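In the design runs reported in the main text, the only information available to the sequence generator was the tokenized backbone. The following block is the verbatim input for one such run; it is reproduced so that readers can re-run the procedure and compare outputs position by position.
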């Protein structure tokens, strides 16, 4: 009986996600996301429901994970201003994170395997089981970890829903706030100031691409050492 219920829930979730993916594709979202200007125009098309559209896009970006939420948060900052964009993004990210965690907790490995590759699962599962609170906090603070996939894998551990929710609320907002503030300040900034900011962002991106894996491995190794030390 329980297996039949889980299958029905999983089928309903997959249908909803497929419907969301089809909506994004049919409305040109994946083409618009290649350019900040095109993304702003895409969101503005749904006026007077632009705020609701933005919230749904951010929510789907967590569940379907096509793009990082920070990118759309910056576009939302330009369109709505810093605080509206941040609050909409943060609300959507929290809702999406809690949903994926709860679905993984309820449906188990069968659900997780449909969204998380075996390679990612093997890389993070042992550390999550041993040091989930510490590792999740670090992963949410650093931009090179797959935050949304980790929410699913965390649902397979013994971490309580309440503790997971606290970690999400405390660790996930800072990058979103920075991206929203950057987007919100962009229209009023002088081009002479925007150029250094853009260069700095490019440098940080390249450093993350080059050294992100190394830093990730260092964090994982340190947590594993602490695990063995505790035993």
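Verbatim output:
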């Amino acid at each position: 009986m329980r297996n039949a219920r889980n299958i029905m829930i999983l089928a309903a979730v997959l249908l909803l996600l497929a419907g969301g993916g089809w909506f994004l594709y049919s409305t040109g979202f994946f083409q618009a996301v290649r350019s900040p200007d095109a993304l702003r125009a895409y969101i503005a098309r749904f006026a007077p429901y632009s705020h609701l559209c933005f919230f749904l896009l951010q929510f789907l970006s967590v569940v379907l994970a096509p793009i990082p939420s920070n990118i759309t948060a910056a576009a939302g900052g330009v369109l709505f201003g810093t605080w509206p964009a941040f609050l909409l993004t943060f609300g959507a990210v929290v809702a999406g994170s809690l949903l994926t965690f709860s679905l993984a907790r309820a449906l188990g490995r069968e659900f997780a395997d449909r969204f998380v590759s075996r390679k990612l699962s093997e890389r993070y599962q042992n550390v999550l089981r041993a040091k989930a609170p510490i590792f999740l906090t670090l992963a949410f603070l650093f931009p090179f970890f797959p935050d949304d996939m980790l929410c699913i894998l965390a649902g397979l551990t013994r971490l309580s829903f309440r503790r997971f929710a606290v970690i999400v609320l405390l660790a996930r907002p800072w990058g979103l706030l920075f991206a929203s503030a950057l987007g919100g300040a962009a229209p009023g900034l002088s081009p002479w100031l925007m150029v250094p900011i853009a260069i700095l962002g490019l440098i940080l991106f390249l450093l993350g691409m080059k050294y992100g894996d190394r830093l990730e491995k260092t964090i994982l190794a340190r947590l594993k050492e602490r695990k063995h030390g505790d035993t």
